Amino acid sequence: MTINIHGGSIMADASARSADLIIAITMADIAIILVAGSILGWLVRYVRQPPVVGEIIAGIALGPSLLGLLPGDLPSHIFPSEVRPHLSAIAQVGLLVFMFGIGWEFDKRLLQGRQGTAAAVSIASVVVSFVLAIGLAALLYDRHNVVNGKHISFTAFALFMGAAMSITAFPVLARILTEHRMMGTRVGALALASAAIDDVLAWCLLALVAAIVTASGGSGDFAQTIVLSLLYVTVMLLVVRPLLSYLIRRRVRDRIPPQLIVVLVAGLFLSSYATTWIGIHAIFGAFAFGFVMPREPRGVLDEGAKRPFGGISLVLLPVFFIVTGLNVDIGALSGRDLLELSAIIFVACAGKLIGASVPGRLAGMSWREAGTLGILMNTRGLTELIILNAGVSLGVLDDRMFTMMVVMALFTTVLTGPFLPKAPVRVDRAGSRALSEEPAAAASSV
Questions:
Q1: I want to staple 194 with a disulfide (CB 3.0 to 4.6 A). Which of 17, 121, 363, 364 is the partner?
Q2: DSSP-assigned states of every residue in 238-295
Q3: CB of 146 closer than 8 Å to CB of 398
């Protein structure tokens, strides 16, 4: 009996040491991720690209697409299977904090004076992209209708492709406009406002896809998901938003008390849990909680809350790129896959260029300005990766389709910088720059 107990103790000690080693490897992997992302993010600046492009490339490079080509299966040794669930959990935290910041940064002032044109550009770019994506989905469906041994419906696949093609990366776009000194121009302001509307529409489409996919029991489950979603939105607008406003009015003076930060973090994660339980993915809960956050007192909230949350995203979000890159294997694509990839890129670019440029031209822009608007709206970057990872978790994308869509997201983002002119900043700084620098601040980490 003593021997058995002693043997059990030895096994327990070995298990504890193994758990400690897994945690230690996780920490070392995060260090590798941060260094690699930082170096490549710095290097891509020399080719007029935002840091997020370098971080995406780092994620792909550390996976099977590049590092995996070397002998010894290095990705599996550096990021062993036991560590990947920990990295995924950390990536999810960084992603939720980032989505909270995006929701918080959504500013109605972006639409002032340009509501009609921005709505026309956004709706047209979404509709054209969506329609083209549905046609493309019809061609690709037969080769990608089984994911992890489970058959997916054409409706779910086509709607997801439409949502993924319709997205414009609002935070990445804000960063690009800042670095190219286009925030104060008519094209830049209109692109940013249109992208804000565009993203809301695309998120709604993705929520619909999530509801369809998770409602596997039929129309009854789907109706339940929709009802719960509407109830959730109602509670957020009529209960949570007034409560947050009350707490901030009572508790915030010249600084943010620590207790309020705890409330915000807890609320963020509870909201994400609620949307996951409903069946429409955690990212919607994070975005919605940020959306209902009060904006005033702006200076105190920026310094005491937005900056700390931005710091969390800066450190944790690169882990998301690695988790994404580990599932991307460009070398596994066949010749037929490369043809499909070309079609995906063509449809993605055509949808945004046509859908944004034509309304811009009809609104009185020159063809040069309208073309620049279309190029800006074609930026996808990080937001596209978020949607694609949601597609994987929902079981809508297989590995090959995921790889092709990630390459498309990277290509369309890289394509933006070289085709943009370096426009001068508008003289009227008091109005335009004060309006535009806030979204850029939110995007500084990407």
A1: 121
A2: IIIHHHHHHHHHHH-SSS--HHHHHHHHHHHHHHHHHHHHHTS-HHHHHHHHHHTS--
A3: yes
Tens-digit pLDDT profile for residues 384-422: 888 888 888 888 888 899 999 999 998 988 888 777 765
DSSP 58-109: HHHHTTTTTGGGSTT-HHHHHS-TTTHHHHHHHHHHHHHHHHHHHHHH--GG
Provide the 3-class DSSP secondary structure of residue 150: strand
Q: Alpha helices, DSSP H only, in 146-185?
A: 154-166, 170-179
User: Using CA atoms, how far apart are residues 209 and 146, in angstroms rounded to an integer?
Assistant: 17
The CB density around residue 178, as the number of other CB atoms within 10 Å, is 19
Structure tokens at 345: 């890129």
- Rounded CA gap, 36 and 75, in Å? 14
Crossing angle of helices 84-105 and 381-393, in 10° steps, is 130
CA distance 1 to 197: 69
CA separation for the pair 292, 407 (Å, rounded)? 34
- HSE, side-chain direction, 13 A CA sphere, residue 344: 26
Cα distance between residue 16 and residue 381, in whole Å? 40
Residues 136, 305: Cα–Cα separation, whole Å? 43
Closest CA to 324 of 414, 446, 410, 202: 410
Q: 81-119: per-residue pLDDT in tens?
A: 888 888 888 888 888 888 888 778 765 565 555 567 778
**Contact call for residues 99 and 386 (beta carbons, < 8 A):** yes
Tokens of 381: 């970057």
Residue 446 three-state SS: coil
Contact between 160 and 206 under an 8 Å Cβ cutoff? The reply is yes
Q: Which single residue is written with the structure tokens 């597609």?
A: 391
